[in-house]
Amino acid sequence: MIASIHDRGGKTIGLIRYLYGPGTEEEHIDPHLVAAFDPLTPDPGRDPNATYEHLQRLLDQPVTALPASKRPEKHVWHLSVRAAPEDPILSDEDWAAIARRMVAATGIALDGDEATCRWAAVRHADDHIHIIATLVRDDGRRPRLHNEARRAQAECRRIEVDYGLRRVAPGDGTAAKPPTSAERHKAEREGREQPAREELRETVRRGVAGAMSEEEFFDRLAAAGLLIRKRVAPSGDLLGYKVALPDNRNGEKEPVFYAGSTLSPDLSLPRIRKRFTADTPNQGTDAASVEAPSGPATARRRTATAAWQAVLVIDHGEDAEVAAHIAAAGEVLDALAKTSAAHTRAELREAAFAFVRATRSHIKAERGHDRALRQAARDLVYSGPALGRGEDGATTAMAIDMAFFLITAAAHWHAKKNHAQQAAAAREAAEHLRAAYQAAAEVPLGVLYQRGGRLPQPLRQKQAAHLRQTVPELAEQILAEAGWHALAATLADAETTGHDPAALLAEAAGRQELGTADSISDVLVWRLRRMAELPADATAMPEPTTTTTTTGNRRAARPSPNRDNRPRKTG
User: Fold this and answer.
1) What is the pTM of this model?
2) Partner of 391 for a Cys bridge, out of 21, 303, 435, 537, CB 3.0 to 4.6 A?
3) Is the distance from CB of 261 to CB of 267 less than 8 angstroms?
4) Mind listing the domains of the chain with CATH numbers?
5) Rounded CA gap, 558 and 550, in Å?
6) What letter does residue 255 receive in the DSSP assignment?
7) How is 317-349 classified by DSSP, letter by letter?
8) Which of 540, 503, 305, 492 has the alpha carbon at shortest distance from 401?
9) How far is 135 from 141, CA to CA, in rounded Å?
10) How far is it, in rounded angstroms, from Cα 380 to Cα 387?
11) Looking at residues 310-316, what average pLDDT do you find?
């Protein structure tokens, strides 16, 4: 159950007309009162003699009783309470009881207080109610509404238990502000896919992904078509910024600007600056100075490597380091969504959108440790859009494969920290990544499968022997998988290029929880091709034959202490 406190208003009659009206898309059905401050409150929905104005005057009476100079400009309080789609339909009596609990919990109408605020609860759909209240008590004083949103959510958690409803993960106050009802209705009227606030938030997020300076950040926003208004101190120092969509105007035809901090706490200029200053290392090579990738495929390989290394940090690092890596993982998802081909873009965009909630918690990120992931995001952006075929398409599957594992590791970490909303967001993002992976991997894995099917029988038997020798406990399961032929082809390719397939397989398979992967073959294929620096697109390689390199010429992949210790589940 979700309780949403909407922006305060100054016209009670306007909200009443909306609640009792047909709705923006004729979605309001049988609007009627389920509860109110007074059982005798007239109901314009059921009483033919009651009018909207009658209900408005009754609710506003404490306001109009005040001298005009003491009347609050915005005195209309509005709360909606919505059940989950899978919840049973509650009766009017149930919703009435819920309404009374909500006004008591928020401080609108405390139990036993005879001079409390006046309120009414309207139901015009099966799954939710709206509560309208006047923010002047009958004794002329104002109600105490400190933290009423948090108290409303806490009451929802208790209601879920009492009524056997879907349990919603409790919040921790780190979520970005959602669009207001007015912003949502405006987007619907104008035919926008999403409210302006969300579109701006997504654009700014992509603008900061991998950016290394304020100048670069603002250049990206301008290139994306946003209007930018900077707040400058008399000294000339930049204090903050606002952005607007060129076609999102108010009643005076002026652009509607949003400050970065109102879009999301981590998009304020001071928070963004921390990413830039942390990108200058104390020692060693600056990630920003690393040679730029020659194309999308190279950028995706680097992304897979950075994601692989980040998993170990999430599994074993300090909390501040982990928080930084999880935040940077969000930048990688934004960059992937921005640069990937059309058949994966929608799911990657949804993954990035969902994962944003997982990037914020009360654990303060220690920036600087996440340079490799931020550099990967930058590489993706500056390498340009990837084609959905050939090496670009295959390395996209490779990158998504490791991103899936990284996001899953983040979900596990949040769950261990009891970050319920963040863990749920990461799991949702992982499901979108699973779908994107399936779309990206279908063609390259199909090529590998056919390649493996054409292997000479002695060579395929040889790779099976390597498998039984290296992972005897999982060998028969892998051999029964549809992806075994793709793995056999990869092992043969590795041997053709001078690697020891058994040594490679031992390193790739030496990870925890390999037996829980949905497709062990998929996991091993991408790990092996990345470790052995094989083309992700197997059509770029000659067909393997029974003639192989001598043992003396074989070389195993270079071991890396940063590689992860667990595989991910693949679709």
Assistant:
1) 0.75
2) 537
3) yes
4) 2-163 (3.30.930), 188-278 (no CATH), 287-553 (no CATH)
5) 19
6) B
7) S-HHHHHHHHHHHHHHHHHHHHHS-HHHHHHHH
8) 305
9) 9
10) 13
11) 90
